[in-house]
Amino acid sequence: MARKSETSVVQELMLYAVSAALSSLVLYVGLRQLDPNRSSNKKALEQKKAIAKRLGRPLVNTNSYEDVIACDVVNPDDIDVEFDSIGGLDQVKEALFELVILPLRRPEIFSHGRLLSPQKGVLLYGPPGTGKTMLAKAIAKESGAVFINVRISNLMSKWFGDAQKLVAAVFSLANKLQPAIIFIDEVDSFLGQRRNSDHEAMTNMKTEFMSLWDGFTTDKNSRVMVLAATNRPSELDEAILRRFTQVFEIGKPNQSERVKILKVVLKGEKVDENIDYELVAARCEGFTGSDILELCKQAAYFPIRDLLDGEKSGKNSNASPRALTQADLEKALSDRKGKKASRGLNAGVETTIQEGGDVQNAIYELSKIMSLFAEQ
């Protein structure tokens, strides 16, 4: 009887152990499926493997915060933008090559003395559509540096203190992956002037960012650079501006630069060889690089429309679209200017109606005052 009771106890214990193990396994699998960061963690792991393969060395262990930032890491081999892909800005590109790209690519020739220390902060500013973000990607491509595209939404966390840890993860991951470029687009939205209305979490993030940035600026051997772009440099905090050792204005292109942009945009496309680039560029005065790109995209639809019209009428059923011509570009220009004029006219009508309403209100108020005087 004693042996039977011992056997039953052992069986029950084993049953409990197996049940507990199965319950733990089910709970673990269920929690993994419910984990909101599961997909991002998987993406981060794939990114780290790709980067480690490119660097030719195993990537050191990263924490959960660095894994979040790793999702925004771009391998320079995957960037398809080079300096030759950007029309114009020759002087800016030359300066960026000497001051930014060479120190990242050839650190040994900049290791002597303090005067030739690598740039730790570079700011690109100018109106929207002038190619600041493209230029930033081209810098990473030309220098071979890992590109960390910092998104402010990824730094914000509902958990107290996590924002500072995510900011710290940006710099710690960049240090592990160096040479690395930390890029912040629309930096004024993150590192703008401090105001009394700023949330405490945002203030702490700014302080943490500047503190960590200062740590890298004092390290001569560090090949980590903060690269930022903004449309509103006047909105930046003065303490932040002082940390950008190089500032470049990326303005609207001039006539010769517009010609270069047109040729870069239309390179490899099916275009008529008689296009007068100088004339088209002259008619694009005030356009940004983005405007010129959109203009060419609009013009490229006209050959498609002609092809479809021909198919509807029973002609050219097997033909390919004709080449893009000067007339297509000029028609796209006319359409664009017509739309702008229409928007301006509508705005003027709205203003006139509003002003007319204001006049009527003023007359009504004046008549009320006059009637009061008449009663007295």
From TrEMBL:
It is found in: Mitochondrion outer membrane. CDD domains: RecA-like_ATAD1. It comes from the Eukaryota. It is a single-pass membrane protein. SUPFAM superfamilies: P-loop containing nucleoside triphosphate hydrolases (SSF52540). The chain crosses the membrane at residues 13-31. Its main location: mitochondrion. The keyword ATP-binding applies. It holds the Pfam family AAA_lid_3. The keyword tRNA processing does not apply. Belongs to the AAA ATPase family. This is P-loop containing nucleoside triphosphate hydrolases superfamily protein.
